[in-house]
Design goal:
alpha/beta, seven-stranded parallel β-sheet, five-stranded mixed β-sheet, 11 helices, 22% strand, globular, disordered N terminus
Length: 544
């Protein structure tokens, strides 16, 4: 979602932190907290006071990007202010104090909880989670990470949630997955398909589509590494910490012992995971040809509100399939210094694929992980967009743990809103969306903080609204499903946030169709504003 106006965002938790650019700071940069002096006027809206002349000028000076109500939700007179400027926090605090409008003004001080796990390899090797700039294998930058230490203070995973890893299988007996492997309670190990899901004896773990059996054990290594990044148990005193420590692990084997497979296995794997209860899927797999079969499977996941995270590929070229499809979340890779990975450590001709279909990036080079043939070997590392994607899938699984009703559209909107923009070199990473970094490097803490909001309020109660076809041809007809009867103002923006067209729409039935004006190929965002309720939802549209 492209946010073009200041948004009122309400936090529902008792502490407030932000990603810090320097590990020595004890407060968040570019943030201050203010409490207005009591106004006895009945029904006063303190948010409106920011528009008064003396405050409006100051807000413009420091380039305020967001106000968030914090503290007492009855008085609603205390705000977290986020701004985009190089002015120090100390100076901003003094500037707001000088207005004499506030009872107090202070930095957003940091606190700590149990965010740092006791896994022995965490501090020295897992730079992707917390980066102190000392990673020995590559140039590293402080805070070029996804802030998992802060995020774990909020959520470590719902034990009832099922997360599927579609890959070369997983080492299901690894102690890092102990007690968490998905068990199909509707099936019995008796040579029959007791649950009528068309898979015989799929009791434990998942299914092997490469060998057509019920044993999705990893015989290559790729899947165990990928799965461990997302799901290794943290704070258990061994090995590494995955993003999600508690949720159930479903292994769907769609790659063989050579790390190769077919689109039919990929498609079947998606249907299997969705139909058997997975709410988040990671597929660090891709091919170079489009496929209607694969597109149908991706759209099936979306239609069933299952988030599908896919790697973009490692050829330093255009994105692979299915990461090109609109309803897949496409993830590229960054290095320990926040640059786009090009090349990966294993091949000078490799690199994180890029293009207009990319959504976000995440750490993906020099990623240590679990071994598929040992429970005690923690010394191997991998590099690829395959390693970047499970960071995102893991974070999404924590978002779903917080709010099981969050939709895929809302997940996308939250990732876009909370990813850290312009972390890489200006030659590739430009303001807003770009083809190399998408909307930026994900930040787990910010995503979970945002996820604590009432997402229905944020996204205009859009749970059931959808559009098709997507992608659409340049002169095609666009269909909106489940718009409530009303008049709508439709505005289409390009990826730079520029308004390219606006029109009105009347919705009186389940499906409302309109002929779009001719648009150039690319990615767009559609604001759908209900003129009756003045609520807006935003959808992503790809024009092919």
């Amino acid at each position: 979602m492209m946010i073009r106006t200041l948004q009122l965002l309400i936090l529902f938790f008792c502490f407030s932190l932000s990603a810090q650019n320097e590990s020595t700071l004890n407060y968040a940069e570019t943030q201050v907290i203010v409490k207005f002096k009591t106004d006895l006027t009945q029904g006063v809206n303190y948010l409106d006071k920011f528009n008064e002349v003396h405050l409006a000028a100051l807000n413009d000076q420091i380039n305020v990007s967001k106000y968030e109500i914090i503290g007492n939700k009855k008085t609603k007179n205390t705000f977290l202010i986020k701004y985009d400027s190089s002015i120090t926090v100390e100076d901003v605090v003094q500037l707001y104090k000088n207005t004499d409008a506030f009872e107090y003004v202070e930095p957003n001080f940091a606190c700590s909880g149990n965010g740092i796990p006791n896994d022995p390899n965490f501090a020295t090797r897992q730079w992707s989670m917390v980066n102190d700039g000392t990673f020995p294998l590559s140039p590293a930058t402080v805070n070029a990470d996804i802030d998992m230490d802060l995020a774990w203070d909020i959520e470590t995973g719902d034990p009832n949630l099922i997360v599927a890893i579609l890959d070369s299988g997983m080492k299901l007996d690894h102690p890092e997955f102990a007690g968490r492997v998905w068990f199909n309670s509707s099936e019995v190990l008796d040579g029959m398909d007791n649950d009528n899901n068309n898979y015989i004896d799929d009791v434990y773990g998942g299914w092997d589509f490469a060998n057509s059996d019920n044993d999705p054990t990893d015989d290559h290594g790729h899947g165990t590494n990928v799965g461990g990044i997302a799901l290794a148990t943290g704070n258990n005193g061994i090995g590494y910490a995955g993003v999600n420590w508690n949720s159930q692990v479903m292994a769907v084997k769609i790659l063989d012992q050579n790390n190769s497979g077919f689109y039919s296995w990929m498609a079947d794997g998606i249907y299997y995971a969705v139909d058997n209860g997975a709410k988040v899927m990671n597929m660090s797999v891709g091919g170079n040809s489009p496929s209607a079969t694969l597109l149908d499977a991706v759209d099936y996941a979306y239609a069933n509100n299952v988030a599908l995270v896919v790697s973009t590929g490692n050829g330093d070229t255009a994105l692979q399939y299915p990461s090109r499809y609109a309803n897949a979340i496409a993830v590229g890779s960054t290095n320990p210094d926040d640059s786009r990975t090009s090349p990966f450590f294993w091949d000078p001709n490799s690199g994180s694929n890029f293009g207009p279909e990319i959504d976000v990036v995440a750490p993906g080079n020099y990623i240590y992980g679990l071994s598929y043939n040992s429970n005690t070997n923690y010394n191997s590392y991998w590099g690829g967009t395959s390693q970047a994607a499970p960071h995102v899938a893991g974070v999404i699984s924590l978002m779903v743990s917080i709010d099981p009703n969050v939709t895929v559209d809302q997940i996308n909107a939250i990732l876009i809103q909370t990813s850290i923009d312009q972390v890489g070199p200006i030659s590739e990473d430009t303001a807003g969306f770009d083809n190399y970094f998408g909307y930026g490097r994900i930040n787990a803490f910010e995503a979970l903080t945002f996820g604590l909001l009432n997402v229905d309020d944020f996204n205009g109660n859009s749970n059931d609204v959808s559009m098709y076809p997507n992608p659409i041809s340049v002169d095609g007809k666009l269909n909106f499903m489940n718009l409530k009867p009303s008049s709508y103002d439709i505005t289409i923006y390009n990826i730079s946030g520029q308004n390219v067209t606006s029109f009105s729409l009347e919705a009186n039935s389940q499906v409302t169709s309109t002929k779009l004006p001719q648009l150039e190929s690319g990615i767009y965002f559609i604001d759908i504003n209900d003129a009756t309720t003045n609520t807006t939802i935003t959808k992503k549209l790809i024009v092919k």
